[in-house]
Amino acid sequence: DVKVTQSSRYLVKRTGEKVFLECVQDMDHENMFWYRQDPGLGLRLIYFSYDVKMKEKGDIPEGYSVSREKKERFSLILESASTNQTSMYLCASRRQGINEQFFGPGTRLTVL
Amino acid sequence: GEDVEQSLFLSVREGDSSVINCTYTDSSSTYLYWYKQEPGAGLQLLTYIFSNMDMKQDQRLTVLLNKKDKHLSLRIADTQTGDSAIYFCAESIGNTGKLIFGQGTTLQVKP
């Protein structure tokens, strides 16, 4: 079974803090994705990575950066957290050329 | 740009059929997907359909695709309380692996 894990289920941070959200997958998948989920808006793609050290902006990259130093790990970084980044963050991975994306359980981030 | 639309809420009685609808705009989509999200969990792929098909059946699930109208539906037969969840429609964009998701439809199943 594919396992995608995220470092925290719940996180509370203060405005201006630097925040790291970690995602690890155990199936040697090339592609990894970060989404945020907001009620009534569905999932929106923040960044994705085709492979190690590669990254591409998604639809809403502003205020975020990512790091993919190892194939199994994809980190989302909020350089200076703001209240409008309060959201559910979902990580996913996919084997190159295969349809299905496998999702982690999500991290609910609250920025006060 | 690409856009996927769904209604936000559907309520049915246990044992009835549920039909969740979705419209999309990108005619070059190769695959269309239905994902399920149970409370407190990530998304789980339920089923998908290739764009040159018009129907796919998998046990209680039937997916209908009208490519001309860019309309996708998911029918759940004999809906159970365990089917209560948020259902997301998504389309794939080219060969990038990127998915565009709809807003999600919350399905409430009443006993």
Radius of gyration of chain A (Å): 13 Å
* Spans of at least 5 consecutive residues with low confidence of chain A: none
Distance between the termini of chain B: 41 Å
Reported for the largest beta sheet of chain B, the result is: 6 strands, mixed
Alpha-beta content class of chain B: mainly beta
How much of the sequence lies in strands of chain A comes to over 45%
The largest sheet of chain A is: 7 strands, mixed
Q: Quick one: how many beta strands of chain B?
A: 11
Biggest interface: A-B, 25 and 24 residues
Proportion of residues in extended strands of chain B: over 45%
What is the helix fraction of residues of chain B, given as a range?
under 10%
Number of strand segments of chain A: 11
SSE pattern of chain A, N- to C-terminal: EEEEEEEEEEE
Radius of gyration of chain B, CA atoms, in whole angstroms? 13 Å
In the predicted model, the low-confidence regions of chain B spanning at least 5 consecutive residues are none
Query: Which structural class should the secondary elements of chain A be placed in?
Result: mainly beta
Number of DSSP helical runs of chain A: 0
* SS field, number of helical segments of chain B: 0
State the gist of this model.
The complex is a heterodimer of chains A (112) and B (111). Chain A is mainly beta. Helix content of chain A is 0%, strand content 54%.
Structure description:
The complex is a heterodimer of chains A (112) and B (111). Chain A has 112 residues and is an all-beta fold. Helix content of chain A is 0%, strand content 54%. In chain A, the strands form two sheets. In chain A, strands 2, 4, 5, 6, 9, 10 and 11 form a seven-stranded mixed beta sheet that branches. Chain A has a four-stranded antiparallel beta sheet with strand order 1-3-8-7, with no helix packed on it. The model of chain A has no long low-confidence stretch (mean pLDDT 94). Helix content of chain B is 0%, strand content 57%. Chain B contains no helices and eleven strands. In chain B, strands 2, 4, 5, 9, 10 and 11 form a six-stranded mixed beta sheet that branches. In chain B, strands 1-3-8-7-6 form a five-stranded antiparallel beta sheet, with no helix packed on it. Chain B is globular and about 40 Å long. The model of chain B has no long low-confidence stretch (mean pLDDT 91). At the A-B interface, strand 4, strand 5, strand 9 and strand 10 of A face strand 4, strand 5, strand 9 and strand 10 of B.
